[in-house]
Design goal:
The chain is α/β, with parallel strands linked by helices. It has helices spanning about 40-45, 60, 85-90, 100-115, 120-125, 130-135, 160-170, 190-195, 215-220, 240-250, 290-310; strands at about 5-10, 25-30, 50, 70-75, 90-95, 150-155, 175-180, 185-190, 200-205, 230, 255, 280. The chain folds into 2 domains: about 5-100 and about 290-310, Rossmann fold (3-Layer(aba) Sandwich), CATH 3.40.50.720; about 100-280, Rossmann fold.
Length: about 325
């Protein structure tokens, strides 16, 4: 394999603890912690391979770049890359599927347990010193309920959704799924039925034209008042303003969210008004990023680069 120039455009999103030196086996690499849209062309100067996570790659950011042959996305989702433009320009694009299944499922379960057990309130009771001062051996308010016997609705039943289903069943939940192509290993229902019947609803959909805003204000209004909503997919699959309003109005019992339509979300984002609520658990798009998952992702990217230069089509989107 010939020596090529590889530009890593947003290494900060991959974690400072991740050793990128494996890329040296495939060429000379340069790592930039961040890359603003107006810096893309400069950071890609003479590079044949771009490794990105969140940097947007489209006609505007790539204009004037003639050396780029391959974009490697350090993620499964590819909504940050204009595939039509890349195809027109002869730029190959590869993503990485399946590397984060365990990691995302783990955070999904952690959020469900955190919210359903009111962990914030109980740990705060101890942290504040009230437990020590109170003279009572336990505290049982706010009341919490076992999730065993509850219904867990899974919106999007791909690799991650299936893993979450396994966890939900292990915890004693009945599992419902919304899937475009019905599966035989789970009870599939329409989205409105799932939202109306589920006690816990977790979202695991890719973002595209058909899923944007799919968790609408109408669907949110059909949810149980004691339902917990968890989004670890993409922020824009939910009507975020409607979600925030439902929390403020007490229309749903809890929210766990790791993804946002704009990341990091700005001060004007509707979740800024609810981020300190006790029944809200917001995390900084970290569900995918266990150390083990990031190592798997980098290994997959290296294999994608090798495949491309050997004439293969491994993980090719275009």
């Amino acid at each position: 394999m010939k020596n090529v120039k590889i530009a890593v455009l947003d290494s900060a999103t991959l974690g400072e603890d991740l050793d990128l030196s494996a890329l040296k086996d495939y060429g000379e690499f340069f790592a930039y912690k961040t890359t603003a849209p107006e810096e893309v062309c400069d950071h890609l100067k003479d590079a044949e391979v771009a490794l990105i996570n969140k940097v947007k790659m489209n006609e505007k950011t790539l204009a004037g770049n003639d050396s780029l042959k391959l974009i490697c996305i350090a993620a499964t989702g590819f909504d940050n890359v204009d595939l039509d433009y890349c195809k027109k320009k002869g730029i190959a694009v590869c993503n990485v599927a399946g590397y984060s299944t365990e990691s995302v499922a783990q955070l999904t379960a952690a959020m469900a347990l955190y919210l359903s057990t009111n962990i914030y309130d109980f740990t705060e009771h101890v942290r504040s010193g009230e437990y020590t001062k109170g003279g009572v051996a336990n505290k049982l308010t706010p009341v919490y309920h076992e999730i065993s016997g509850k219904t867990w609705g899974i919106v999007g039943y791909g690799n991650i959704g299936k893993k979450v289903g396994d966890v939900a069943r292990a915890l004693g939940c009945k599992v419902l799924a919304f899937k475009k192509t019905p599966a035989t290993d789970v009870e599939c229902v329409d989205l409105k039925t799932l939202c109306a019947q589920s006690d816990i609803i977790s979202v695991h959909l890719p973002l595209n034209d058909s899923t944007r805003g799919i968790i609408s204000s109408e669907l949110i209004s059909s949810m149980k008042k004691d339902a917990i909503l968890i989004n670890v997919a993409r922020g824009a699959v939910c009507d975020e303003a409607a979600v925030a309003k439902a929390i403020k109005d007490g229309k749903i019992a809890g929210l766990g969210c790791d993804v946002y339509s704009s990341e990091p979300f700005p001060e004007t984002h509707p979740f800024n008004e609810i981020k300190e609520y006790r029944n809200v658990c917001l995390t900084p798009h970290m569900a995918w990023g266990s150390y083990e998952a990031r190592k798997r992702c980098l290994n997959e990217i290296c294999m994608n680069i090798r495949s491309f230069y050997e004439g293969g089509n491994r993980s090719r989107l275009v």
